[in-house]
Specification:
The chain has 157 residues and is mainly β. The chain is 0% helix and 50% strand. It is built from no helices and 13 strands.
C-alpha cells in the first residue's frame, strides 16, 4: 500500500504468500512509473482466515533521471559477458542494437517499452567473433523527446 496525497494508503499491488512455514521467504514488488519524490509504503498481511495486519510504514526516496544517458559497457574489453547501463528521463520505446566495425547490425539487444528510470542490461556475446563492436541506443519518449547515443565495445576471446 502506498500513501496518497490525502494521507491515506491505497493498494498498489498484490504478492501471493507462501502460507505458514518455518523457512524465511522473500517477497518483492516494483511500483513502476513513479515521479521523483518521497513515498510511504506499508504492507498488509492477510491470513487464511481473513484477518489482516499492517506493517509499520517506511519512506522511500525515488530519484528519477533528469536526462537520458548511455554509459560505457563494463568490463571492456570483455569475454563473453558485459553490462550496459542507460537512463531514461521519460517512459520510452527503447531499441539497443549491436553493430560490427563495418556498420552492419549483428544483433538487437533490446526492443521494448521501458518506464522512466535507470537500467543495467547484461549482454552475452557468445557466438560472436572477437573484434570491435558498437552499440547504439534509440529512445523515443512518450513526452516527444528523442535520444540516440553510440559507444564502442571490444570482444576479446
Amino acid at each position: 500500500m502506498r500513501e496518497n496525497q490525502t494521507g491515506s494508503f491505497e493498494k498498489v499491488g498484490y504478492v501471493g504468500g507462501n502460507g505458514t512455514t518455518t523457512q524465511a521467504k522473500e517477497y518483492a514488488f516494483i511500483d513502476a512509473g513513479l515521479a521523483s519524490g518521497k513515498y510511504s509504503y506499508r504492507l498488509k498481511q492477510v491470513d487464511f482466515d481473513g484477518t489482516s495486519e499492517y506493517s509499520n510504514a517506511i519512506e522511500v526516496d525515488v530519484n528519477v533521471p533528469s536526462e537520458y544517458s548511455l554509459t560505457q559497457n563494463f568490463p571492456n574489453p570483455f569475454n563473453p559477458s558485459t553490462s550496459i547501463q542507460f537512463a531514461l528521463k521519460s517512459d520510452a520505446k527503447v531499441t539497443l542494437r549491436l553493430f560490427d566495425a563495418l556498420g552492419q547490425e549483428v544483433r538487437t539487444i533490446l526492443n521494448d517499452n521501458y518506464a522512466t528510470g535507470n537500467y543495467k542490461i547484461d549482454f552475452n556475446a557468445t557466438g560472436l567473433n572477437s573484434g570491435v563492436y558498437f552499440y547504439t541506443i534509440d529512445a523515443s519518449g512518450v513526452d516527444g523527446s528523442k535520444f540516440t547515443a553510440t559507444k564502442k565495445m571490444i570482444l576479446m576471446k
